[in-house]
Amino acid sequence: MIRFNLILMFAALMIYAACSTLTLQPADFSWPIESVLPVDDNGNVSEEKYSLEFNTRNMFFEEFQDSTAFIGKEIRLIRDNKGFYYITAQNFKNVYVFKPEDGTLVLNNMVPISETGIKNPAFNQRKDHIELIDGDTKLSLTHEGIEGG
Predict the structure, then answer these.
(1) What's the burial of 72, exposed, middle or buried (CB within 10 Å: 0-12/13-18/19+)?
(2) What values do phi and psi take at 32, rounded to 5?
(3) How far is CA 136 from CA 39, 86, 87, 107, 133, in A?
C-alpha cells in the first residue's frame, strides 16, 4: 500500500512538472524609438532591425476605404513593453494596436484620435505607455486606448 502511494505521488509529480510552463520574467518588449517604414508597391513594410515584416493593405483599406491608399505612404510603428504594436500614418484618424499571434498581427484595439486625420504623427516610448505627438497635441496611449480619456 505504501509503495502504491509512493508510485501515485511520483506519477502526480511527473504530470505536474510536464504541465507547468516555463516562464522567463520580467520581460520588456518595448522598442526605444519608433520606426518610420515606407510601404512598398505591394503594401508591405519591413523592419530589418527587429526582423518584422507585414502587409498594410487591410489597415489602409479600413482607414480610407480605398484599396490603393497605401501606395507611396509610410507608417509609424512602435512596440510597448507588453508586446503590443502601435501603428498610424499621416492622415489616419486612428491608431491601430496589434498583438502578435501565430505568425499574424491581430487587431487588439483601434483608438480614435482625430476626425480630420493626424497631420504629423510621432510615437515616443514611455515607461508605462506610448506617447503620440501630433503638433501641440500629446496623448498617452495603452493597448486599451487613451490613458485618462
Answers:
(1) exposed
(2) -65, -30
(3) 27, 20, 20, 28, 7
Nearest CA to 52 among 88, 30, 77?
77
Quote the CA–CA distance of 106 and 88 in Å, as a whole number. 15
AA identity, residue 111: V
CB 87 within 8 A of CB 58: no
- Show the DSSP H helices in 20-114 as ranges: 57-64
pLDDT (tens digit per residue) in 21-74: 787 788 888 888 899 999 999 999 999 888 899 999 999 999 999 999 999 999
Q: What does the CA dihedral 106, 72, 67, 75 come to, rounded to 10 degrees?
A: 20
Which of 10, 54, 50 has its CA nearest to residue 30? 50
Helix (H) or strand (E) holding 18, with range, is helix 2-19
Instruction: Cell numbers for 119, please give them.
Output: 497631420
How many Cβ atoms sit within 10 Å of the Cβ of residue 31?
A: 20
CB atoms under 10 Å from CB of 144, counted, come to 11
Contact 97, 111 (CB under 8 A): yes
